[in-house]
Design brief:
Shape: globular
Distance between the termini: 56 Å
Low-confidence stretches: none
Largest sheet: 9 strands, mixed
Radius of gyration: 19 Å
Strand content: 15-25%
Helix content: 25-40%
CATH class: Alpha Beta
CATH superfamily: Spore Coat Polysaccharide Biosynthesis Protein SpsA, Chain A
Order of helices and strands: EEEHEHHHEHHEEHEEEEHHEEHH
Bound molecules: uridine 5'-triphosphate
Strand order of the largest sheet: 5-4-1-6-11-8-12-10-9
């Protein structure tokens, strides 16, 4: 059966974006016209995902509210003849089922994924990090391509990677390929934050994964690593070390990853999306030209 379930972890504290994230999730911050998670859901549903499980936490209820059908608002807009604004709520009617569970203690991304175990059970599934958009306006079918590879190569782990400058590899989890690197390559290992000279490639983990349910057993026995958190990368490495088949897919330049987790890349993402806005992008471009003169 085709993979139709995705887990979106959104329970992190988002400390790098304080004070903006004190009482609202970073995953609800707007990038252009939409909050981050809306882009992620649109990307996933365009890749045939039909069930979405959010791993949420305290002060994240606005995510659930966002995907609910708001009859009062719909009626208000309908009665006042505001069809254009009404169309902005079409995403509420997507053919997708939403599930929510709480990560009751923020013990890291790996622990958040482990919270999905009871619902996901014994089936392969997608993980899409709640703070990264792939492609301008989420125009990417990377997840669909990853799922296809997962199935045809009978893989256990498929990971998306983005190229980063060599002098920045120390900030990321970096792919150690087995054999040559093409757009699709065999993944031997992932090295966390290597130095420039030790880095086996300049391909950084890019927020999208497909896993066989075997990852849950690894996560359950993974000891807390950096910062006392259970790391998803540690569980993935341990699975690969046991001989599990790993595949890497390189994001094409036309589908960049926008990381919303820190102010530098959040600002850049916002500007890129705002510039791509068909109504307001051209005026913003002129404004920026004047400001930067
Ligand atoms: P990050 O690694 O960016 O962690 O999470 P964070 O806690 O959100 O942010 P900082 O470092 O404090 O600024 C990547 C994704 O994993 C989720 C986050 O919500 C984010 O979407 N996550 C992280 C969890 O769901 N639970 C966790 O315990 C940690």
């Amino acid at each position: 059966m085709a993979i139709d379930i995705a887990v979106i972890p959104v329970a992190g504290h988002g400390t790098r974006l304080l004070p903006a994230t004190k009482s609202q999730p970073k995953e609800m911050l707007p990038v252009g016209r939409k909050p981050v998670v809306q882009y992620i859901v649109e990307e996933l549903t365009n890749s045939q995902i039909r069930r979405i499980l959010f791993i949420t936490g305290a002060s994240k209820t606005s995510i659930e509210n966002h995907f609910d059908i708001d009859e009062r608002l719909i009626n208000y807009l309908r009665e006042s003849g505001r069809e254009e604004e009404l169309a902005e709520l079409d995403f509420e009617r997507k053919d997708v089922e939403y599930f929510y569970t709480r990560q009751r203690r923020q013990l890291g991304l790996g622990h958040a994924v482990l919270c999905a175990k009871s619902l996901v059970g014994q089936q392969p599934f997608v993980v899409a990090l709640g703070d990264s958009i792939i492609g301008i306006n989420a125009k990417s079918d990377i997840v669909q391509r990853m799922v296809e590879q997962f199935e045809t190569a009978k893989a256990d782990v498929v990971v998306a990677f983005e190229e980063v400058p060599r002098n920045e590899v120390v900030r990321y989890g970096i792919a150690a390929p087995r054999g040559p690197i093409g757009d699709i390559f065999e993944l031997q290992d992932v090295i966390e934050k290597p130095s420039e000279s030790e880095a086996p490639s300049n391909l950084a983990v890019a927020a999208r994964y497909v896993f066989s349910p075997a990852i849950f057993d690894e996560l359950a026995t993974t000891k807390p690593g950096k910062g006392g958190e259970i790391q998803l990368t540690d569980a993935m490495r341990s699975l690969l070390k046991k001989g599990a088949k790993g595949i890497g897919l390189r994001l094409p330049a036309s589908e960049p990853r926008f990381d919303i987790g820190n102010y530098e890349s959040y600002y850049q993402a916002f500007v890129d999306f705002a510039l791509a806005d068909p109504d307001h992008g051209p005026a913003l471009r002129e404004h920026l030209k004047r400001t930067l003169k």
